[in-house]
Amino acid sequence: MNPTGALAYVVDDDVSAREGVARLIRSAGVMTKTFASGEEFLASGPPKMPSCLVLDLNLPGLSGLDLQQELAKSGVQVPIIFLSGHGDIPTTVRALKAGATNFLTKPFEDEDLLNAVQQCLTSDLEDQVQFDEGVGNMVGESAGFRGVANAIQIVAPTDAAVLIQGETGTGKELVARAIHDRSSRSNRPFIKVNCAAIPATLLESELFGHEKGAFTGAFAQKLGRFELAHGGTLFLDEIGEIPLELQPKLLRALQEQEFERLGGNRTIQVDVRVIAATNRNLKAMVEENKFRADLYYRLDVFPLTVPPLRERRQDIPLLIRYFVQKHAGRMGRRIERIPTESVQALTSYPWPGNIRELQNVIERSIIMSNGPELRVAMPELNDNPAPVALRAQRPSGSDPNERALILQALKEANGQVGGADGAAARLGFKRTTLQSRMRKYNIARHFQ
């Protein structure tokens, strides 16, 4: 399992050292790929550059510095951690001047390497987060995200109605905008209506407009959202909240592309693509006679489900970086580093409020951070029952129940020590601290 979505490449001619480094990095929840030489690395033609490159300086043939220069010539920018058995100052200076992120001398402490890797993954906040081409201002690389991106690419060029389903805060409006931006209507209006935010008595007027004198207070003619969206896209958010009595008129507008303003008798023709979104189960509402079946099937031409953030955890570090960059710049703050523990805590949290809640937490954290390191201010974690129970019983050296608590955490983490979902994160320990306690209680041999 790779909770962070990060990928590290390890290049070392010593198979024992290479596999040892890779195993250590994987224990922190980061995927790895290994190469025995610089030539093998270049010949492999990797389709995706890693988040971090751990590179032995003294490789036979193409040295580590030579490989770094080859990558630079090709315009490839990747954070590099050099490993050397010599550690001479001139070589270190050359490597760092050439752009190395870090330089470690063998033998090194496990924690030093893991910290260097984490720095590569989280500290380069000045770079722009690259949005996936064609899916708007959306960030991600998980399977769930790719599924949504592919669906957008498929349906956008058509004029089909789209029903976007997903929990509150998952980014349904961003998906709707991405569909519009990739369609032939992209240079025409994108008009949105939040059906839950407008009183039922006013919603008909908002959608279809009204004539002067149609009701008390109608002092002038008003164009509805359907007319304003002519030639473009109408986004009906929270469609499950639309009153039953208004649904027949909406169905007619969708099917016939025509309607009358409230208080009028002139039929108005429009050319509108409709995208609807909801966090409710419309099919269940149909069965309960709370939503018209014919309207549901008219909207559900192309269903698209946006997964909750807890089902796309490997996107969380990317979203953290994006929101830090976005809000730090706006607030005039310079955040250069996000601690490993913070990334792990944010990745482990279930996020009931999804992306909207994550953005809120990051923005608050930036406000609380006075220096270059992000200080995560996340009181919502205290409402998460499982972690609270563990934190409340966080073991100490003198706790007689410590061994039992460690075993409990390891069991819940399926034996995983490091990483965002590992036992160390559940107990609030560093990975190396937990491993030390495990050795103390003679349980290290059972869980690696």
Write structural notes for this entry:
By secondary structure, the chain is of the alpha/beta class. It has four domains: 7-122, Response regulator (Rossmann fold, 3-Layer(aba) Sandwich); 143-309, 3-Layer(aba) Sandwich (Rossmann fold); 313-383, Helicase, Ruva Protein, domain 3; 385-440. Helix content is 41%, strand content 12%. It has 19 helices and twelve strands. The protein has helices spanning 15-27, 38-44, 64-73, 89-97, 110-122, 143-155, 172-181, 200-208, 225-228, 247-256, 282-287, 293-299, 316-331, 340-348, 354-368, 385-392, 402-412, 423-427, 431-440, and strands at residues 7-11, 31-35, 52-56, 80-84, 102-105, 162-165, 190-194, 233-237, 258-260, 267-269, 273-278, 302-305. The chain has a five-stranded parallel β-sheet, with helices on both faces. β9 and β10 (267-269) form a beta hairpin. α10 (247-256) crosses α12 and α13 (316-331) packs across α15. The longest helix has 16 residues, at 316-331. The model is unreliable at 123-134 and 379-400 (pLDDT under 50).
Summarize the structure.
The chain is of the alpha/beta class and 448 residues long. The chain has helices at residues 15-27, 38-44, 64-73, 89-97, 110-122, 143-155, 172-181, 200-208, 225-228, 247-256, 282-287, 293-299, 316-331, 340-348, 354-368, 385-392, 402-412, 423-427, 431-440; strands spanning 7-11, 31-35, 52-56, 80-84, 102-105, 162-165, 190-194, 233-237, 258-260, 267-269, 273-278, 302-305. It folds into 4 domains: 7-122, Rossmann fold (3-Layer(aba) Sandwich), CATH 3.40.50; 143-309, Rossmann fold; 313-383, Helicase, Ruva Protein, domain 3 (Orthogonal Bundle), CATH 1.10.8.60; 385-440.
